[in-house]
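Private note to self, pasted from the team thread so I don't lose it. Backbone tokens:
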């Protein structure tokens, strides 16, 4: 490699006689040669290629601050960068925008743009969306890695209560942290199932008992099982609330609101039973208690806390609001049209079941959704033809948006599995790198590296950050320079 001040280098032209607009320079990026002219490069003077045009008058120090090597005879600048990304970046000088080729890692492409000093605003919107998605994935991986590192690390400066609070939180919220935590998760799951079964069995008339006033009520044994389940749910919720690191976020979480709705009806009905009779009539108290008992069905949603499949379904439906809206709109239009046509066509029949258009809505709903209860049906020929058309249109209206919804579910489910695998892979690389460092380096050197790592926002002093191709920049603020041989696959 030629160095600045080498006698083999001829003198650099410093008189500025050649205009930069007419200058021709050759750039060699990873073995790929490109010829540029000054008038094109000077359109964006802040970029690295534009600086090459004016760096010759600054001597070799200025030249080698911009490139890896330089051949003064050919006026050829050498860069050890990714040539595929460079071919995309130079489009800004000709078209004013940049498109990222398929197969290039968005994060690596962003780093290449930063190296060539090209602003991200020149990246096309479609490519920006891909870059944002990749950033979100890396942030999610970093968040998962950080959660695992926090669980592994023990801060000696924390008080005993803080350490106890963290242990309770891990014990109740993270079944994968230990074997007893898995046992507690299984017990919680069983209590939810038992409570749901008791709620259903308690409505069987043969298993109910009659009180002194002649009203049917649940069997005392089932009532005791229900009380035990509610006691478990209450204890679990209180412990999780006390040990949560952010109690406001915990209270406003959707699943925790479901937990409250599953527990609250029991205590409200208990209060009304013992105190409400003094304030209102007994019949009103019984009606209020019955209404609150119906709210116990909310506890079945607690199963989502222990089922990754139900959680994935929930997130997939949240991401499919547009498709669900289209489905409802198609059905609403069809229901209105076919119910109106059915009402009009059936008026000529003396025994018509279509008394009004709003009543016909029910017939249109069960017909378009292919349920067909048969309580309302057409009796005229035109009415039957209208029913057949509404049936076919209903099948088509439901089938069209279903495929995107299924795709969203599969994409999100696969993405979660990939993120989980990537987080585990990153941790394995960290542990491997840390073990190698302990075998080859001194203990003082590792302590220095740990102190440097603590300056980053996401780092644990127990594990050293990996320098692999899957390196997550969010886990450390160190700068890692890549060569073209390490370009993203």
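Design output:
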């Amino acid at each position: 490699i030629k160095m600045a001040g080498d006698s083999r280098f001829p003198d650099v032209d410093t008189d500025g006689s050649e205009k930069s607009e007419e200058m021709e320079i050759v750039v060699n990026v990873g073995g790929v040669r490109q010829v540029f002219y000054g008038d094109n490069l000077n359109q964006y003077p802040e970029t690295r290629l534009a600086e090459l045009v004016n760096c010759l008058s600054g001597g070799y120090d200025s030249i080698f601050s911009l490139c890896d090597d330089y051949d003064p005879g050919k006026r050829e600048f050498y860069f050890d960068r990714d040539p595929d990304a460079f071919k995309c970046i130079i489009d800004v000088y000709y078209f004013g925008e940049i498109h990222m080729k398929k197969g290039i890692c968005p994060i690596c492409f962003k780093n290449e743009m930063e190296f060539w000093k090209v602003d991200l605003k020149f990246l096309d919107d479609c490519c920006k969306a891909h870059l944002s998605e990749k950033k979100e994935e890396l942030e999610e991986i970093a968040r998962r890695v950080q959660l695992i590192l926090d669980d592994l690390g023990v801060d000696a400066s924390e008080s005993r209560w803080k350490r106890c609070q963290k242990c309770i939180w891990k014990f109740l919220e993270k079944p994968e942290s230990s074997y007893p935590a898995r046992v507690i998760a299984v017990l919680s799951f069983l209590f939810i199932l038992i409570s749901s079964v008791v709620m259903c069995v308690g409505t069987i008339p043969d298993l109910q008992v009659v009180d002194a006033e002649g009203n049917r009520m649940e069997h005392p044994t089932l009532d005791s099982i229900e009380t035990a389940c509610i006691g478990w749910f209450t204890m679990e919720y209180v412990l999780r609330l006390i040990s949560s690191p952010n109690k406001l976020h915990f209270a406003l979480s959707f699943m925790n609101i479901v937990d409250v709705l599953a527990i609250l009806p029991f205590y409200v009905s208990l209060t009304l039973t013992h105190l409400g009779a003094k304030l209102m009539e007994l019949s009103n108290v019984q009606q209020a208690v019955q209404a609150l008992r119906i709210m116990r069905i909310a506890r079945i949603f607690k199963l989502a806390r222990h089922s990754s499949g139900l959680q994935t379904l929930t997130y997939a439906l949240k991401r499919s609001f547009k498709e669900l809206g289209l489905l409802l709109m198609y059905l609403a239009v069809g229901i209105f049209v076919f119910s109106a046509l059915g009402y009009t066509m059936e008026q000529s029949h003396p025994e018509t079941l279509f008394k009004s258009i709003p009543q016909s809505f029910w017939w249109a709903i069960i017909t378009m959704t292919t349920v067909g209860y048969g309580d309302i049906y057409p009796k005229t020929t035109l009415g039957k033809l209208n029913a057949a058309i509404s049936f076919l249109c209903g099948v088509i209206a439901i089938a069209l948006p279903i495929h995107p919804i299924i795709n969203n579910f599969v994409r999100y489910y696969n993405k979660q599995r990939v993120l989980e695998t990537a987080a585990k892979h990153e941790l394995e690389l960290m542990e491997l790198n840390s073990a190698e460092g302990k075998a080859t380096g001194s203990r003082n050197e590792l302590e220095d590296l740990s102190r440097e790592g603590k300056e980053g926002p996401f780092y644990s002093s127990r594990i050293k950050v990996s320098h692999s191709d899957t390196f997550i920049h969010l886990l450390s603020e160190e700068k890692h320079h890549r060569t073209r041989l390490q370009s993203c696959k």
